[in-house]
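batch job 7 of whatever, protein = Sec-independent protein translocase protein TatB
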Amino acid sequence: MLDFGFDKLALIGAVALVVIGPEKLPRVARTVGALLGKAQRYVADVKAEVNRSIELEELQKMKSQFETAARDVEQSVRQEVDTASQALNQTWSDVTSDSAYEGGGYTPPPPSYRHPKKNWRLKRGATPLWFKQKAGVRRHTQSGAARVARFRPPQR
C-alpha cells in the first residue's frame, strides 16, 4: 500500500503551504480530513458487508449440514418404526389366525364402547352441597336486579 513516513508528510505539507497559501490551508486541511473520514467509513462499511456475506455463507453451510443430519435421523427413525410395525403386524396376524382358536372355534368379541358417566358441562366442586348449605355459601349466581328484589324490604 502507500507508505508515508514523517519526511514525506512534511514535504507534502510544505508544498501545500507554498501552493495553496497560509490563508486557505486550514480550510483545505478540514476538507481533506472530512474526505479521508468519509473514505475510512466507506472502507469500514465495505469490510463489514464482506464479513456479513462470509458469515451468511457459513450459516447457509451449517444449515445445509443440519438439514442433512435431520433427514438422516428421520430416515433411520422411519426405518425403525417400519420394522417394528411389520413385526407387530406379523405377531398380531399369528395371534389372531385360526390356528390359535382351533379348539372351540372361539373368537373374542370386539370391545364395546362405554360412555363415561360424566356431565362435562357441570362444574363439580370438592366441597359437598350439604356443607355449603349448612355454612350458608351461595351456590348460584344472581343478577343485580334479582338480588335487589330478594332483599327489598316489604311494602306496607
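notes: The chain has a mean pLDDT of 84.
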